Every structure is written in structure tokens, then in C-alpha cells.
Amino acid sequence: MRHYTAIFLLATVSAWAADNEVYVDQSGDNANIDIEQLGSSNIIGGLNSTAGSLTAFDLDGTGLTLDINQIGDTNKFLGDIYGNSITGFFEFDGDTNTFTIQGDPTNTFGINNSNYNVDVTGNTNTFTLNHGTAALASGLDLDWIIQGDDNEITYGIDIDGATSYLDIDGDNNNLTYDGDGAAGGYFYLDQTGNNRNWTIKQQSTLNNDWLKIISNTSGGTLCIIQNDGGTSTSC
Fold this sequence. Notes:
The protein is mainly β.
């Protein structure tokens, strides 16, 4: 199997551009990609990138391994991932960083048996993950470890036997989770910190989702909806 990879590192000094930019367009199986950025205002893009007008961060293939380390503030990790058996190690240390990733957003290949580990230390970060469409996230194992305050976490999984574990420590952290699809959504949330605001929806059509929450907190709101196709509900 041939692999096609384009990776460009762009160091810029002009006022309008990011400090460093990485462009990745990968097609092929069993690739290993390791990217580390140290400093602030860096971009790995895709997904409406700004600064030097990056495009791509497009990974297509089976058995890919992606290891990302962004150490600093105001960095961006943006892109699309297509294919089965993807392993991702994503580490972010710093404040006001942005993570926006889509797993097979066009329902092209399926995105089964993926394993993502997201490790965050910092404040006022924004994380958005949409994984799978039309119940394609079979066998997903997704783990988040977040330490810091005022973070925003939004993620959706189209579930067919998917596991998600979230360990979050800090104050004023907001979570929006939507797990729909076929069946078998397991979500375990362990949280410490005050004034948290959560909305958790489990909406698998075959009615065998599972939720466990351990929370040590004061203040904030918690909304949980489990719905296997009944009357629409809200908090």
C-alpha cells in the first residue's frame, strides 16, 4: 500500500499570521504522524483555518496513529479524520486553545474501532469533537482528562457500542454531550470543581445506554436526558 503525505511547517513573522502552521493531507493506511508545537498562536489546520489560510488536515486511511502535542496558549487543532481503527493521542498544555475535530463527517468510510486519548491542562479552552454519522462509531474508546477552569467541552458520538470516559477537575467547566445512533453508549463522568454546567443526552434508538456520574461540586446545573425514540424532552 502506498502512502501519500504532505506536511508543511510554516514559520511566519508577519502580524496577521500564526507563529507556526502545519498542513497535513494524508491518504493511505497504517501511517504514523507525530506533531509537536511549542509556543503560542500555532495552528494545525483544516476546518476554516485562519492566519495563513491553511486548508487540509485531512487524514484518510485505516490503522492511522496521530500524536499531537501543543504546548502553549491560543493554539488551534482543526481537521477531519476518515477511516477505521484510528489511534489518537492529543495533549494540550496552556490556555485559550481550540480543538475542533470531525470523524467521518460525510458518512464516507465509517470510523469504527477508534481510540482517542485527550489530555488537557489549562483554562478557557474550547473543545469540539463530532465523531461518526449514522451510527458509525462502532467500538469507539474515548478518554478525556481535563484539569483547569472555564473550559468548554462539546462532543457528539453516533454510537454503536462506544465508550466515553471523562475526568474533569476545575471550576466553571461546561459540558455538552450528545450520544445518539444505534445502541450501547457507555459514559462515565468523574468531576471535581464548582459551578459546573452540564447537558448530557443519550439517545440510542435501541435503549441500552449507560451513564455513571461521580461529582464533587457546589453550584451549577446538570441536565440529563435519556431517550430511545419517545416524546421529545428537555430540561
